[in-house]
Each structure stands twice: as structure tokens, then as C-alpha cells.
Amino acid sequence: MAVQIHIEDNWYIISDKYCYQLTLFSGYDKHGREKWLASKFAGTIRTILEVWAEQMIRDSDAQTFGELKAKVDELHKKIDQIGREITVESSHRS
């Protein structure tokens, strides 16, 4: 079974047996099938989360270095929190 994790807004991480993919859900086509855009690939969840953070930085409305730094700090905190939760969940499975 493949991973399909909602990150935020319309951003998802999906996977197959080879890699993780960052995708942007764009709705459904006329046949009711899901439409995905903006695919980026990585070998680890941590890397794909960093790719997502970079995209969020590029999409931000930051006008000053201070605003940019605040956005970067916010995203790094989210990634660290997700990483801690993944570690805790995986240690409970042992």
C-alpha cells in the first residue's frame, strides 16, 4: 500500500515502492479521477519535506529578509515536529 499524506492546503506526499513524491492536488477531472500537479521526487520523507518547504518559501509573499526568515523558521519547526512524530510512531511499532 502506498503512502498518501496530506501536508497542508492541497499539498500531499504520496509514494510507491521506489520513492516519495510531493504533489499538488488540483481537483477531479470530468470522470471523477484525482488530478495531481507539481510532482517532485525524493528518496526519503525528510528530503521530500525539505523540497516542500523550499516550494513554500518560493510561494511566500515575503518582502523583507525578516519575513523570509520567519517563514523559513516556521517551516523548519513544522518539519522537525513531523520528524519527531514519525520517530515516536515508528518506535512504538517495535
Keywords:
2 helices; alpha+beta
Nearest-integer average pLDDT: 86
Number of strands: 4
Strand order of the largest sheet: 1-2-3-4
Sheet of most strands: 4 strands, antiparallel
How much is the radius of gyration in Å?
15 Å
Task: Show unreliable segments.
Answer: 88-94
Helix content range of the residues, please? 40-55%
N-to-C SSE series? EEEEHH
Query: Which term fits the overall shape?
Result: globular
Total count of helical runs of at least 4 residues = 2
First and last CA, distance: 20 Å
Helix- and strand-based class?
alpha+beta
How large a portion of the residues is in β-strands, by DSSP E?
25-35%
> How many structural domains are formed by the residues?
1
Task: Please characterize this protein's 3D structure.
By secondary structure, this protein is an alpha+beta fold. It has one domain. Helix content is 46%, strand content 30%. It contains two helices and four strands; from the N terminus they run ββββαα. The chain has helices at 45-59, 65-92; strands spanning 4-8, 11-15, 20-28, 34-42. A four-stranded antiparallel beta sheet has the order 1-2-3-4. α1 (45-59) runs antiparallel to α2. The longest helix is centred in the last third of the chain and has 28 residues, at 65-92. The two termini are 20 Å apart. The model is unreliable at 88-94 (pLDDT under 50).
